[in-house]
Amino acid sequence: MGFGTLLGFPYIKFPTKLPYFILKHLDVNTMEVKLPNGGVIEITPSKIREVLGIPMGPMSFYAENKRLKSNSVHCKFMAQLSRDVRKRTTSSLSEIIQTSEGTDIIFDLNFLMLFANCLGTCRNTAMLKYHVLENVMSSKDIPNIDWCIFIWNCIKESKQKWDDTTLENWYYGPHVTFTVENQFTENVDVEGENVDEQVEKQAREEVAVKEAAAKELAEKEDPEKAVKEAAAKEHAEKEDAQKVAKEEAKKKQEAEKHQEALKLKAEQERAQKEAEKELNEKRKAAAKELNEKRSKEKAEKEAARQAEIPEFESPSIQEKPFGTGKDIGEASIENEIIEGKRKVKPSIYLKSSYNNKISNVMEALTEDERLLAYSLFSMEGDILDNVFDDGKGTIVPRITMQSLSPGVLIDSLVIDAFVAVMNEEERRKLKKLLTIGCNDQNEKKNLNKQIETLMGILNKDETSFKLRDVKLVFFPIIAHKHYYVIVFDLDKGHAVILDDSNSDADYEGKYKKIFDFVREMLVHFLNRTKHPALQKMMKDAPVKIAKMKWRTKENKIDCGLYMMMHMEMFEGEIGLKWKTNILDERNRQYSEQIKRMRMRYTAKILLHDANKNSKMMSDFAIKFDEEHNDKEEQKKMVEEAMIRKASEEKH
Predict the structure, then answer these.
(1) For residues 331, 335, 338 and 344, what is the CA-based torsion angle, rounded to 10 degrees?
(2) 494-498 and 544-545: which strand pairing?
């Protein structure tokens, strides 16, 4: 980013009296500090560059097209802050930075916001100013922005706003002012005195002059003037008392108005909640009535059909409403479905045809899958709504789940939600998937702490029985914004790495450090739980790196999707025995398959029984389809929304 020189900068060593000395002698028209002995310090952007070492690029800090509040980056940044505006301070932002475990555009904005609010534009409050969020569009722009001009303007504006005529002449400008001046004060001849001594000397001289003038004036004044002053003082005190009384009355009146406003607001909120409750009850009643009506019609038509069909006939009847898993070409929620001589009305709930079943990468999307994915990728709805909650701690908001949209790097929380779904399906099988959060590789993290985290995860899952009934253990890894999977076969004592990236990096440089850490953590866990596979896993068997024919060279975005497919489809065999039907990236149907699988996994995660909010998402999708009932217009709108989302993520 170009701000490395700020690390270890000795801010706390600057003299405390230096700021006011500089402010008093700073001429904002020429941006020069004129010292009492005739010396001059010139403040320029280039000198700020020499002192702080921050970037001085060709771009202006203030962007022509500012970032909108509806932008996804703006939403992500604001989502990490407190909802209470008064708690959005530099201190809270500093705590967020210290707990960050990765670097992305949000981390960059956090650092720049702290830099600009502490070392640039300062106020007499710790609350944040959002000029960085509005003007810095991309991480690539940061080193190309002229930060020195920005600081130079901050210094100039802070002096213009400083009032030196009052007793409490506090200065709220940037501390950078003092660092710049302190750096160059050493190069100016101040007749052998340092700045602190000069300031103190000048202050003493000014006090002495004022005292002498006051003494001389007092000697010349006559008694009549003293009487006048006493009367004036009494009058002033009386006016002050009246002023205080008026202010107290005004405060009391404002407090009463505030209480009335709060009361009115509370009544409005109560009325709104009651209205929402009544509306929800009406919707539930309407849905129940519709379901009963359809059930009654279904029963009547079935009875009529049975009366028409001879006893020896046994026609094949298959309903195709929402939730049947039929292809888009075979199912339609707009029309009644005719089979034989009866009509079947659609159900009012969506469902994934791959619930408790391995996803097929070749089959076309069902109508339910398409509709659910479209409703999410339309980018409609509250971005902070929790669309996935497994009831065990894995919660994903809408804006995060929307990273499944084509062309966007899938968020790690989405992977954790998929892991929760897969573990629900693998209850009676021999696979165990772990979340990304339990194996984040950080050299500074204590190994025992990682083991305790792993044990905590497995102890909550009674079906795993501390991995006693598990054959394959999956560790999803994210390193440098790239996803891959490490799989341990406890029966054979082997390990394999499943990575879609076909890069030139070798094992030592790309995998070894992380693999050794994960393997050591697993061995410690097996030893602590006295697992029968301990001796097999302690053997120093070389890890295998699967050379799948569908590995990619160009695709750098869909590594998260490949991780999900690998975790679902891998059963322990690699090479020719592992068949997935995943296409090569050069295949003409490749991009369509990738898009289809993103939509399929969206439906699988959100409509799965493991998701406590699956009904909410089904209702949202059905409502979305009713509001956008023109299929062509609906498709066009969603396609445009997905393109915008991908474009925003790139920038």
Answers:
(1) 90
(2) parallel
In three-state secondary structure terms, 89 is strand
Write the DSSP string, 490-532.
TTTTEEEEE--B--S--HHHHTHHHHHHHHHHHHHHHHHTT-T
**Least confident among 46-50, 122-126, 609-613:** 122-126
Q: In this predicted model, what pLDDT tens digit does every residue of 184-195 receive, in sequence order?
A: 444 444 443 455
pTM > 0.85: yes or no: no
Report domain extents, the chain: 4-197, 224-293, 411-580
Cα separation, 407 vs 598, whole angstroms: 10
Helices (H), 412-446: 412-425
Orientation of helix 614-627 relative to helix 590-607, angle to 10°:
120
Local structure of 533: helix, strand or coil: coil
For 233-282, what is each residue's pLDDT tens digit?
A: 888 888 888 888 888 888 888 888 888 888 888 888 888 888 878 877 87
Which pairing describes strands 386-389 and 472-479: parallel, antiparallel, or unpaired?
unpaired
| C-beta separation of 423 from 433 below 8 A | yes
Domain 411-580: assigned CATH number? 3.40.395.10
Residue 130 is encoded by which pair of tokens? 């959002």
Residue 171 DSSP one-character state: -
* Rg of the chain, C-alpha, whole Å: 35
The rounded distance, in Å, linking the Cα atoms of 150 and 132 is 11
